Amino acid sequence: MAQSTRKKPVSKTVNAAVSARIAAQDHFRTLRLGTPFQPRIDALAKTQDWYNWAGYRAPHSLWDEELEYFAIRSQAALFDISPMTKYRIEGPDAEAFLDRVTLRDVTKLKPGRVHYTAWCDDEGFVLDDGTLFRLSPTRFRLCSQERHLPWLLDSAIGFDVTVEEETEAVAGLALQGPTSFAVLRDAGFASVERLKIFDLADFPHDGGTVGISRTGFTGDLGYELFVSADRALSLWDRLMAAGQLRGIRAIGYTALNRARLEAGLIVANADFTTAEHAIRADRLRMPDEIGLGFMIDLEKSHFNGRRAILDARAKRKLRHVLVGLEIEGNIPAEHAIVYHKKSQEVGLVSAAMWSPMAKRNIAIASLARPYGDTMVDDLWVEIYAMRELQYQKLMKRAKVVARPFIKLDRRTANPPADF
Amino acid sequence: MAGQNGGCYAKFRAFGNRSRKNEERVSREDWAKMKAWDAIIIGGGHNGLVNACYLQRAGLDVLVVEKNDWVGGAATSRELTPGFLYSNCSYVCSLFRPEIMRDLELPRFGLQVISYEGGAVFTRDGDYLANYRDHDAHRREFARFSKRDAEAYDRYARDVTRQCRFIQPLLMRTAPDPTSLRPRDLGELLYLGKKFAGLSAEEMALTLRFWTMSISEFLDEYFETDVIKANFALSGIIGTALGPMSPGTAYVLLHHYMGEVDGSVGAWGYARGGMGAVTKALAAAFKASGGTIRTGAEVDHVLVGRGKAKGVVLAGGEELYGKLVVSNADVKRTFLKLVEEKELPDIFLRRVRNFKIRGSSGKVNIALDSLPEFPALPKDSPVYRGDMHFTDSVERMERAYDDWKAGRWSADPFLDMVIPTTLDPTMAPPGKHFMSCFVQYAPPKIAGAEWTDADRDGFAESVISQIAEYSPGFRDRIVHMEVRTPREIEAEVGLTEGNIFQGELTFDQLLFNRPVPGYAQYRSPVGGLYMCGSSTHPGGGVMGAPGRNAAAEILRDLAKSTSHMSAAHDVI
């Protein structure tokens, strides 16, 4: 029996949406995108030391990772945060929606304010942490390390709200350090001195606006600036010009990472594994297990994971705790195993350094309760320090200490000081 | 050599003593010419050869008999036109267990597997959806179609990876017999139970859904865009006589994801020199350890005496004696064609008859005098070095399956197309290419009648015309073509109905139910007759695990050491 072949012609009519989609094909030729600031960063990249930040070519360092750190603590450092995932959340129900999704009470977040928050899946496991900017009564920006569009869209069912991913459209800069306020003032951002910590306001720039918030990831005086991608370079130039006499320097991630550790801040998928990426079920963490328990507001209305979190608290099912450690000596204990009485393994260091500001050997570690929680004595870390192809094995005493490891008055001083 | 002869003599004596009553049939002189092998393997496919290698290395004297003039079964590379090597049946490699490659020293015998670069589904609006190896490029590509789906991929990948990690350790273990009270079976059941109990409630639910759901419904839980769903759904139907909307196809996807290329889990690659390189290396390893292969030796039936296998009779009437016989053929061919019915229990026989091993696919291998161009695809796209598809919706896939149900080949077929010569310089002269097209669906019979040559040509035309729609001038590049419908695959390779997995991978035919309940541990109702093909746990694909696991069971029965067999690599 012969069978004929049905013809299914390839459509030749191409509409505008398809044309746009086809025009975007060539991304495969550039596996690491540049950010809107890339021309300026490339010009300063003396070390050519790049890493992949969410598909962007981002600098580990630009000229000297140690000196870049000191630029944060002594002058003003400019760090490109454009690759950070950004969502615009807008609508009459935006507040109620975000209150439902995130841990903290969004009804208390006033327009023009920012708070650090986190959000969980229905099992109470942390999906990510991030910053929530309230741009207006009905408009928010959520910034995070990982991507959450399906989660946000699914959660939006029943709310009059739109969620739009705007990572590429919005460029971001962190300007951090003691002279950061002076740089902004000298750059002509009038009345920027009125911004208190976690305040946010729009300022005119280049025929448009730039949103400036007094926030950051360094524990220092600092600001974050968000601008549409097409005004990114003019913003960079404006800050660099104004900062010339204030010691402004562009920096890479290594320096920023040191500053954030001194500030005791955690990084998703470095200090804990986010729920949508945890392949091993025992890697999932509840907020109470990674030091974010303070965000949980049981007075507010229902939020994702509430029942599971309450249940875990009531039944004492919280198995881990994230703590700050001070370790004797000066050898960084990065990824060292933590022991009780030098013998029983009780946890792991996720980040560690010698703190130039605190002059202490500091670390962030995750421990199995009760260690680090009710049992904090007799803790040790085993450091494997590779020195000229030999491990120097050190067993050093560790003390649980409060975070942040450093507290700088200039961070919150009002009005902010010149340096 | 002297030592080996002595061994044979000893075996002959032992065999002769037991078979004295047969003397009227076989003269003493004939006996002297004969050799009683420790094991005869029926079929030189990859599982037969893996099994043979492990037995030979355990000190057994093993013979592999293969009906074709070459070994390889469905993992062969043949030069059917000068200068071009085809991967005639299987065409990509991922599932083949690295533990086996290492145990049998296959790299020393020439096996190399090269990861490939991704792939694409061409869409009918002149675009394509690519899969890129780079995580961010993959996301950006999906975002061209849906930003939401682009960001849904991580959750999907996490869930699939979790399920693969659950199954992976089971591949290299004999499935427990749930009805048995033997300590080993209880231990294995406990292992399985513990693994399952180790899952969270959410994962347990997902596992059960995964093992029973349709791939279409499973993907609906993650994605909303048709072409993105089609892109993943294809792994749920390959080799299976089910459509993407049939329950059970989600597991088939998992089966295609649990392989690896050198630790890169889920990755697929090309065996350098075609898939025949796998069996070529196995055959060389087998011979190097002293094994014997007889090609052109088709087995007519298994010699059975007093409920025990004693050897095989070749098509020409020649009898070969073995203390045990291992069949690499599928369970239907083994027990419905090679063993007399009277030797088998009724229920077993009925279950073998009802074993689902339906033909669903065909293969078109093409020699090309130049690389085809796809106007939709940029010339420098890595997709040329990956797998290409033209079915851009789950519905089109299901429609293709509708044709199968009606006893027709799909008018608008689903193709899994690769051009291995973009990465493997050994298969065609420079500038020329070998293209492999796996084609679905192709029924075992056309409207109830046998395939004819005209049907075969019509089937080939459905494939060529589909490719030519996306690649103008494609026909002019064709130098030679090998078209294989289920008819050709069954006739040449011996796979019943041309089913590439030696039986469908549905939950009712997996683990301790594969191939049939009570006989999932590579043994059969006939003493000394074992199974080692893909009809057994853990199933098809060029994996080698059935052959290896069968060898472990045989050696256990012989109270021989299995210290030369690596345990499954840790999944940490």
TrEMBL record, chain A:
Enzymatic class: transferase
Segments forming domain GCVT N-terminal: 66-300
UniProt-listed InterPro entries: GcvT/YgfZ/DmdA, GcvT/YgfZ_C, GcvT_C, GCVT_N, TrmE/GcvT-like
Binding-site list for substrate: 224
Record's keyword terms, sorted: Methyltransferase, Transferase
GO molecular function terms listed in the Swiss-Prot or TrEMBL record: aminomethyltransferase activity; methyltransferase activity
Keyword Transferase listed: yes
A Pfam family per the record: GCV_T_C
Gene Ontology biological process terms from the UniProt entry: methylation
PANTHER family: AMINOMETHYLTRANSFERASE, AMINOMETHYLTRANSFERASE, MITOCHONDRIAL
Protein known as: Aminomethyltransferase
Organism field: Mesorhizobium sangaii
Lineage, uppermost ranks: Bacteria, Pseudomonadati, Pseudomonadota, Alphaproteobacteria, Hyphomicrobiales
